[in-house]
Automatic annotation (TrEMBL):
GO terms for molecular function: hydrolase activity. Pfam families: Isochorismatase. SUPFAM superfamilies: Isochorismatase-like hydrolases. Gene3D superfamilies: Isochorismatase-like. Keywords: Hydrolase. InterPro entries: Isochorismatase-like_dom (IPR000868), Isochorismatase-like_hydrls (IPR050272), Isochorismatase-like_sf (IPR036380). This is Cysteine hydrolase. Transmembrane segments: none annotated. It comes from Mucilaginibacter mali.
Length: 185
């Protein structure tokens, strides 16, 4: 599917502290770089969504199993260095940067308001990880009635089998799944 006039590219959790956890981030970085270049050339807004907590992570409840364990381990998820977008994908003037507080791109920020104000109805999703931010954002965005495309090779996960299953069996129920090359072609 080609871009609709009301499309935005979401570049999610592609920040230094998350990218550095991948065994080989080069392929996904190269693919997302290509998607960003295509979006900019086509006039599609590029929106960066990053995970960023305040110092000490006061937004994390002990009831939130995953983030509470990161907090207990002293993971640096509350630092600027962790939250900085990977330099290969650096935002440019005019790009929007959203900070989030949970897996999905929507909680704790004004992403939905910005999308609606810009009359964006179609989201193209990229991000790390496929089973985290991409899955959670896809589910919430579908419930908010956004049209969705997932760029399968613009996403990465620590578990390749989970990545494959999500892109071939789960995501197609609510989104069009395609490669970056198909999207830019």
């Amino acid at each position: 599917m080609k871009n609709t006039p009301n499309t935005a590219l979401l570049v999610m959790d592609m920040q230094i502290g998350i990218v550095s956890r991948l065994a080989d981030p080069k392929p996904v970085l190269a693919n997302v770089t290509k998607a960003i270049a295509h979006a900019r050339k086509a006039g599609v807004p590029v929106i960066y969504v990053t995970l960023k907590f305040r110092p000490g992570m006061p937004e994390v409840s002990s009831n939130n199993t995953v983030f509470a364990s990161f907090k207990a381990q002293g993971a640096p998820m509350d630092t600027e260095a962790f939250a900085q977008v990977h330099p290969d994908l650096a935002p440019q003037d005019g790009d929007i940067i959203i900070k989030k507080l949970r897996y999905s791109a929507f909680p704790g920020n004004d992403l939905d308001m910005i999308l609606r104000a810009q009359q964006i109805t179609h989201l193209v999703l990229t991000g790390i990880s496929t089973s985290g931010v991409v899955l959670s954002t896809l589910r919430e965005a579908a419930d908010k009635d956004y049209q969705l495309t997932v760029l399968s090779d613009g996403c990465a996960d620590h578990d390749e089998e989970v990545h494959r299953v999500l892109n071939t069996k789960v995501f197609p129920r609510q989104a069009q799944v395609m490669s970056v090359e198909e999207w830019v072609g």
